UniProtKB/TrEMBL annotation:
The keyword Membrane is annotated on this UniProt entry: yes
PTS EIIB type-2 domain: residues covered: 170-265
GO cellular component, as recorded: cytoplasm; plasma membrane
Membrane topology: Multi-pass membrane protein
Compartmental location: Cell inner membrane; Cytoplasm
Annotated protein name in UniProt: PTS fructose transporter subunit IIA
Alphabetical list of Pfam families matching this protein: PTS_EIIA_2 (PF00359), PTS_IIB (PF02302)
Classification lineage: Bacteria, Bacillati, Bacillota, Bacilli, Bacillales
Keyword tags: Cell membrane, Membrane, Phosphoprotein, Phosphotransferase system, Sugar transport, Transferase, Transmembrane, Transmembrane helix, Transport
A Gene Ontology molecular function term of the record: carbohydrate:proton symporter activity
Transmembrane segments: 300-319, 331-361, 373-406, 426-444, 456-479, 499-521, 541-558, 564-586, 606-627
Domain PTS EIIC type-2: 289-636
Organism: Sporosarcina ureilytica
């Protein structure tokens, strides 16, 4: 398929009126819509903005290629716009963009369409072509420049390089989230620059139409180095034991020569394949649950942290400061409490459910997930259970809404093409919300009974039992330093905070502070057992630990896991057990030492809380110092 079948006079703007990035995107989309290429102008704008959030499509050299695949596109098309003055587009080189090629691909675009769209991306690597388009006086002149470039590429090919005629053999993989523009532009730039440098390179493209020019085992075995320029998952296991440079796909377009020089000099780490991380995409059935859960939790946390700390701050004026009938009442404190508890905290469970559902079913899952989460906290069916099924109900609502939406999307796949544009705005939301809502209305009362029963059981624990719970939670916060086990413990603390039990969140926060604080203390007490770089990193770890950033210990654990991880787990477990033994309550879900003044029970409890944290840190420091051998030049980066 010819590019001029996608780029026509009706989709060319010789002089755009826009002066900002948002405005030029709107102007180009409006031109597409006027040319009859879109089903839903607003939905396509959303798809374009989602792509821009992943990484800018301003690739430098005055070019921007916004692009998206969407059901809102009626037929594949390209719209061109030109700004002689230039527009600030947040391009990779920081310079204004002058030439805008917006690529609109349908969800079901065939290979011919996708290859034509990808070919345009490679055209823009040619400075002569860019100049011809920039200086065109008419729309016909733009189309003539495109036709001339196509004829040039379709003509006799120059003699290609062979591995025998060059000094180095490289291979590369390029991939971007949509697989239309950046994937092929990066491949073209790598090929052209390598040829100029006298280097043989074979580039595999992971595009929308599949993998092209796939690297063979022999290609990889013979390569001196490998370049992976990707913003999405690619097969990495095959590169095990080879020097691998991993960069964003945009850098392969804009910093091509520097990347190739690194590859030529083999300035790259030897890649060691980690099955647990790199094969995630191939083990979706096992890892999908955690990925969807973490999408919900990570988007919920701003509501939890912001709302929780605002609630806690309101108590500076007294526990009853939000009650108009109390002598402690303060209007400002009441306002903070309303914002934090009445609004931000109220949205916590619906947001959790909404983002779990959208992780499973993309944007169509968000609305039914939010509605399901709202039903979870408002429709109880149980006397005295004002909070509904809370966090538990939100989790179930999120996964229910996500998979219901996938079912609805599949059910409407055979609709006539004329109704395609109604799917995302009518059919998907109506049926997904209805089915999810009805299901949650039916199952939420029994869920509420289960949730209140679990909460009552945990609140009823005492003595040895509660200390054991604290030890387990503390150890979980330290064992993988911000990983899934750590997140599971923290999420449990948030769930109990939502249920108005404040001891569990105090426990997980205190325990999470211990690993970086303890190892930092070890670098101070046992200087000879740590390298100079580690001692410098210890200074940073003090700050990170004080702020409740458990990940501050990762550089040390990565350098010496056999000693640092057990020491961290032991110290955090001690702190967890002591915090529960002292019955410490804290309404703030984050903040480290900066929210210790909000501990319930006055200065005595604050001092006990500090004692629990210091005790665990000392245990970690002593174990780490005693277990480690004297430093022999181990180097880590404190910024990790």
């Amino acid at each position: 398929m010819k590019i001029v079948e996608l780029l026509t006079e009706q989709t060319i703007i010789l002089d755009v009126e826009a002066t900002s990035k948002q405005a030029v995107l709107s102007e180009l989309i409006e031109q597409l819509n006027d040319a009859g290429k879109l089903n839903d102008q607003g939905a396509f704008m959303q798809a374009i903005l989602v792509r821009e959030e992943q990484s800018t499509t301003g690739i430098g050299d005055g070019i921007a290629i916004p692009h998206a695949k969407s059901a809102a596109v009626k037929e594949p098309a390209i719209v061109f716009g030109r700004s002689v003055e230039g527009i600030d587009y947040a391009s990779l080189d920081g310079q204004p963009a002058h030439l805008f090629f917006m690529i609109a691909a349908t969800d079901g675009a065939n290979d011919a369409h996708l290859e034509a769209l990808s070919r345009l991306a490679t055209f823009l690597m040619d400075e002569k072509f860019r100049n011809a388009v920039f200086n065109a006086k008419t729309k016909d002149a733009v189309l003539e420049a495109v036709n001339a470039k196509e004829a040039e590429l379709d003509g006799p090919k120059e003699e290609e390089q062979t591995p025998e005629t060059v000094s180095r053999k490289l291979v590369a993989v390029t991939a971007c989230p949509t697989g239309i523009a950046h994937t092929f532009m990066a491949a073209e730039k790598l090929n052209e620059t390598a040829k100029e440098m006298g280097v043989f390179i074979k580039v595999e493209t992971n595009g929308s139409s599949g993998v092209k020019n796939r690297l063979t085992d022999a290609d990889i075995a013979e390569a001196d180095a490998i370049i992976v320029a990707a913003d999405t998952k690619v097969e990495m296991a095959r590169f095990n034991g080879k020097p691998v440079i991993q960069v964003p796909v945009g850098k392969a377009i804009y910093e091509t020569e520097a990347i190739l020089n690194r590859a030529i000099n083999q300035d790259a780490p030897i890649y060691a394949h980690d099955v647990s991380k790199e094969d995630a995409a191939q083990t979706e059935s096992r890892s999908g649950f955690y990925k969807h859960l973490m999408n919900g939790v990570s988007n919920m946390l701003p509501f939890v942290v912001g709302g929780g700390i605002l609630i806690a701050l309101s108590f500076f004026w007294g526990i009853e400061s939000g009650n108009p009938d109390s002598p402690e009442y303060n209007a400002f404190a009441a306002m903070l409490g309303t914002i934090g508890g009445g609004k931000a905290f109220f949205l916590m469970v619906p947001v959790l459910a909404g983002f779990i559902a959208s992780s499973i079913a993309d944007r169509p899952g968000f609305a039914p997930g939010m509605v399901g989460g709202l039903i979870a906290i408002t429709v109880t069916g149980v006397e005295g259970a004002a909070g509904g099924s809370g966090f538990l109900g939100g989790l179930i609502a999120g996964f229910l809404a996500g998979y219901v939406t996938l079912f609805v999307k599949k059910a409407f796949t055979r609709l006539p093409e004329a109704l395609e544009g109604l799917k995302p705005v009518l059919f998907f939301p109506v049926f997904s919300i209805a089915i999810t809502g009805i299901a949650m209305m039916l199952i939420n009362p029994p869920l509420t009974k289960i949730y209140t029963g679990i909460t009552a059981f945990l609140e009823g624990l005492g003595g040895t039992n509660v200390v054991l719970v604290g030890i387990v939670l503390g150890a979980m916060m330290a064992i993988d330093m911000g990983g899934p086990i750590n997140k599971a413990a923290y999420t449990f603390g948030i769930a109990m905070l939502d249920a108005q039990n404040f001891t569990f969140i105090a426990t997980v926060m205190a325990a999470g502070m211990v690993p970086p604080l303890g190892v930092a203390l070890a670098t101070t007490l046992f200087k000879k057992r740590f390298s100079k770089q580690e001692r410098e990193a210890g200074k940073t770890a003090y700050v990170l630990g004080a702020c409740f950033i458990t990940e501050g210990v990762i550089p040390f654990a990565a350098a010496d896991p056999a000693r640092i991880i057990p020491a961290s787990v032991a110290g955090a477990a001690v702190t967890g057990g002591l915090t529960m033994l002292f019955d410490i309550g804290l309404r703030a879900p984050h903040g480290g030492i900066f929210v210790m003044g909000l501990v319930e029970g006055g200065i005595g409890k604050v001092l006990l809380y500090a004692l629990a944290i210091v005790s665990g840190a000392v245990v970690t420091a002593l174990l780490a110092g005693l277990l480690k051998r004297e430093a022999v030049g181990v180097t880590i980066e404190s910024g990790n």
